[in-house]
Amino acid sequence: MTTPDIIADLVIHGGTIVSPDTEYKASIAIKGGTILAIGGRTAMPKAVDYLDATGLHILPGAIDVHVHFRDPGYPQKEDFASGTAAAAFGGVTTVFDMPNTLPAISDAKSLADKHAIASAKAHVDYGLYAVLGEDSLANVDELIEGGIIGFKLYMGNTFGRIPSPTTGAMLEAFEIVAPTGKRISLHAETNSIMERREARLRQMGRTDPLAHLAARPAVVATEAVARAAILAEWTGARIHVLHISSAAELRPLAEAKARGVDITGETCPQYLLLSSDDYEAMRGVIRVNPPVREAENQDPIWRALVDGTIDMIATDHAPHAPEEKTREDIWTVDCGFPGVETQMPLMLTEIARRKASLSDYVRWSAENPAKAWGLFPKKGTLMVGSDADIAIVDTDLQWTINDAAIQSRAKISPWHGMKATALPVHTIVRGRFAMKDRRLQDDARGWGRSVHAIQAMPPAELRNTDQTMAAVTSPRRSSVA
Ligand code: DOR
Ligand code: ZN
User: Fold this and answer.
1) Do 44 and 72 sit in the same domain of this protein?
2) Are residues 28 and 113 in the same domain?
3) pLDDT at 412
4) Last residue of some domain: 15, 33, 55?
5) Same domain membership, residue 101 and residue 20
6) Residue 327 belongs to domain spanning
7) How many domains does the chain contain in total?
8) CA 344 to CA 347: how far, in whole Å?
9) How many whole angstroms from 222 Cα to the centroid of ligand 1?
10) Residue 248: which CATH number?
């Protein structure tokens, strides 16, 4: 069927479209930022612009639900412009930015200020997280009103030292957020275990890179996942386990899913591709929370992705300046490293090596994140009516990652020197090129928009509402007999 009177903005032809189920050769027409038509070339409307994608794969742009863009507060590490430029170069069309900026995002004012920064600078779409902590429990409504994608709860300390709530405060936080339907993303590391261990290791004089791993063994994360899952099950709160780093976390995650808890999980390339064998050579560069662990964790984490226990790939893009990553004493090295730009190349390389499919990858990188945060099918898929968020990728290109050439301000990462076999060539955000032929499209700065407005979470299934803190302390219920 031809549609001669409609003129598309752009028709992409010659490429192979990757869906969560299959791959097929087809053209895509885009108009007004959304996908107008998908089909044979002759069925496409005329367009203002054409892109020949012969030999390339066309993927839904990745949704990275875990980045730290440091704006406001730490311009030497990253800002919203450099971070979203890195995303565009990595085929990532939506990012969810973490709230451990300076100030932290925990009330309406700090949130409004970050929205102003992001909307002025972003090259790609974004969602903003707000902190769910003891001090911000009273701010839940104003934060939702101000436009957030979800909440972040720090069960353990990490960069920014946002205090971790007690289990008591965490239960109340889950009770308060559950009825809103918002998902709570967890930094699931139990603070008391790792602080105790770190103190003892420091007393002993340990300052070597492996002391970081010794302070945070897998039980730190496993106990936190299990405990959070119990609180989510009790309240009906939706949760997301950030950066799954160990095989041991998979059991409480799978068991919670089997019990019907609305729990999702992500892992990151560092837990699939790096191991404790790398600390000696990489030293502080590899320091991250949770830590890169023993190599025997890698295969179980990969299998959990393949079987769906782990839902998605994110990066925990956590840029720091070279000087902050190369200090001798491991305890003084800032934790984290960039990743938003290299995730897709590294994961597509790994997919080819491990014989998973590109369809598997788009489920992990786009479809599942969009579904977990209520953005599907506007985001996370290439269907008629969806936002035209597209990564056009050469999946047969040998290249070597070079820290000096990345967009992120953090020109230091464990990925330096790694070989990859895939590279995004063009990235389109709502119909507009953010990156074209490996060049940043400067007119796309400020094009990125917050996705909270299109979020539609289904109603939560609340449990034990007669036993919440609010219920048991309500005046109607108290008796002084
Ligand atoms: O290593 C980390 N760095 N882990 C986190 O959870 C936070 C991040 C950061 O903000 O630097
Ligand atoms: Zn993080």
Assistant:
1) no
2) no
3) 97
4) 55
5) no
6) 61-380+398-404
7) 2
8) 5
9) 18
10) 3.20.20.140
Asked, for residue 410, whether it belongs to a domain, the answer is no
Average pLDDT, the chain: 97
Mutate to test the pocket of ligand 1, among 194, 288, 292, 317 (most ligand atoms within 8 A of CB): 288
**In residues, how long is the chain?**
481
> 172: CA distance to ligand 2 center in Å?
23
Query: Per-residue pLDDT for 218 more than 60?
Result: yes
pLDDT 10s digits, 23-35 = 999 999 999 999 9
Q: Is residue 458 part of a domain?
A: no
What is the per-residue pLDDT across 226-271, written as a single tens digit (0 to 9) for each? Answer: 999 999 999 999 999 999 999 999 999 999 999 999 999 999 999 9
Residue 453: exposed, middle, or buried by beta-carbon count in 10 A (0-12, 13-18, 19+)?
A: exposed
Backbone angles phi, psi at 187, to 5 degrees: -80, 95
Note the pLDDT of residue 161.
85
The radius of gyration of the chain from alpha carbons, rounded to an integer in Å, stands at 22
Q: Taking Cα atoms as reference points, which of 245, 307, 248 lies closest to residue 272?
A: 245
> Among the atoms of ligand 1, which is closest to the Cα of residue 70?
10
181 touches ligand 1 (CB under 6 Å): no
Nearest CA to ligand 1 atom 4: 289
Q: What is 147-163 written as a DSSP string?
A: --SEEEEESS--TT-PP
To test ligand 1's pocket by mutation, which of 64, 65, 68, 78 has the most ligand atoms within 8 angstroms of CB?
Answer: 68
Rounded to the nearest whole angstrom, what is the distance from the C-alpha of residue 202 to the centroid of ligand 1? 21
Residue with tokens 């991250």: 288
Query: Looking at the domain assignment, is residue 28 inside a domain?
Result: yes
Residue 335 within any structural domain of the chain: yes
Q: What angle (nearest 5°) sits at the alpha carbon of residue 371, between those of residues 368 and 377?
A: 110
Q: What is the largest CA-CA distance in the chain?
A: 81
Based on the domain organization, do 41 and 188 belong to the same domain?
Answer: no
- Is the distance from the beta carbon of residue 216 to the nearest atom of ligand 1 less than 6 Å? no
CA distance 70 to 76: 9
38-63: pLDDT as tens digits: 999 999 999 999 999 999 999 999 99
Q: Are 26 and 153 found together in one domain?
A: no
Same-domain check for residues 250 and 290: yes
18, 101: one domain: no
What is the model's pTM?
0.97
Q: How far is CA 410 from CA 216, 323, 440, in A?
A: 25, 10, 18
C-beta of 421 in contact with ligand 1 (< 6 A): no
Q: What is the mean pLDDT of residues 357-375?
A: 98
User: Ligand 1 centre and the CA of 319: distance in Å?
Assistant: 9
Question: Do 163 and 122 share a structural domain?
Answer: yes
Which pLDDT band holds residue 480 (cuts at 50, 70, 90)? low
